[in-house]
């Protein structure tokens, strides 16, 4: 293993899902639903396969139907206009979009400011691109993890090339507010930064939280690479269909890297996802309402079990504090949890450079059937 990757080892998701399989524990670790997405969209994939659409290499930028559907989705929901031919790129999941964006946009030594805790592929991809990551820590404040805008401003130097954002935020469930985003956008314009924004949980916002793409703010469209994914929105994480929307020069940069990573991926699934993006609003509302009910169930259960619960405004994850239960080390806690309680969770410390800041936090996924969540809660209550 080379020096760029040496510090990363095996991703926590593989480690914890293997632990769940080995112990037979309920897996609330890795974020994937235990119910597949809509039947009609699965049928659309089968039809594409049967009709011979996408069984051979699809076009490099993605099939025209999907690019058009992505552009229509951004227009309909956010009023953002993107040209499907020059401003949309289909990728092998958001994971490849993140990698290709960083590989295509960073020069060696460039600094990337990212919100900590961060999704684990960010650090590895920044390293592969020869960049330097500069974390800005979200800190617990009145039940949520919040960004300190002064800290963000102080983190930007003359070497900063881009801000890597994620909202709704994995693992904390924080949704950046319109005011926060406006301030970040001003900073990006003032310091002439690019923004890569991971919005894979855009449809999972609850209560009065609102998802606002940073690309909608003044001066941002031309400097922002927005990333979306079908995995989370349509519950098809195995299909690996993601996308990028950005100005032509940025899409070209991302595509330059992407063409040598996978070239293309997921042929028949691209056609199915094009149909999924055109589902009526009722699909998106029902999906969100279902996840909100699951969040409420798990949040109440974890509270009763004695965890400190940070109620998420978005995503399908709950970050908990294990200190009220008398524990302090999330790693040790998660490694022992399958044996002690028959449940798997993720230690948030893996998402931090400042490991000590993340030590007492543990993440549970609630994208599971209600009966599964209820059983997990029963087991976790036995911990106290
Ligand atoms: N970004 C975030 C914040 C995620 O949680 C995930 C996991 N789904 C990804 C990106 C990767 O998405 P995909 O499965 O589409 O590669
Ligand atoms: N995004 C998912 C999570 O945070 C996992 C994706 C993966 O396994 N790489 O749990």
Automatic annotation (TrEMBL):
It is an enzyme of class 2 (transferase). Keywords: Amino-acid biosynthesis, Aminotransferase, Cytoplasm, Pyridoxal phosphate, Transferase. GO terms for biological process: amino acid biosynthetic process. Its EC number is 2.6.1.17. Transmembrane segments: none annotated. It comes from the Bacteria. InterPro entries: Aminotransferase_I/II_large, Kynurenine-oxoglutarate_AT, PyrdxlP-dep_Trfase, PyrdxlP-dep_Trfase_major, PyrdxlP-dep_Trfase_small. One of its GO terms (cellular component) is cytoplasm. Its cofactor is pyridoxal 5'-phosphate. It catalyses: N-succinyl-(2S,6S)-2,6-diaminopimelate + 2-oxoglutarate = (S)-2-succinylamino-6-oxoheptanedioate + L-glutamate. Gene3D superfamilies: Aspartate Aminotransferase, domain 1 (3.90.1150.10), Type I PLP-dependent aspartate aminotransferase-like (Major domain) (3.40.640.10). Pfam families: Aminotran_1_2. It is found in: Cytoplasm. Residues 25-380 form the Aminotransferase class I/classII large domain. One of its GO terms (molecular function) is pyridoxal phosphate binding. Pathway: Amino-acid biosynthesis; L-lysine biosynthesis via DAP pathway; LL-2,6-diaminopimelate from (S)-tetrahydrodipicolinate (succinylase route): step 2/3. Its main location: cytoplasm. Homodimer. Involved in the lysine biosynthetic pathways. It catalyzes the transfer of an amino group from L-glutamate to N-succinyl-2-l-amino-6-oxoheptanedioate (N-succinyl-2-l-amino-6-ketopimelate) in a PLP-dependent reaction, yielding as products N-succinyl-l-2,6-diaminoheptanedioate (N-succinyl-diaminopimelate) and 2-oxoglutarate. Belongs to the class-III pyridoxal-phosphate-dependent aminotransferase family. This is Probable N-succinyldiaminopimelate aminotransferase DapC. It comes from Streptomyces griseicoloratus.
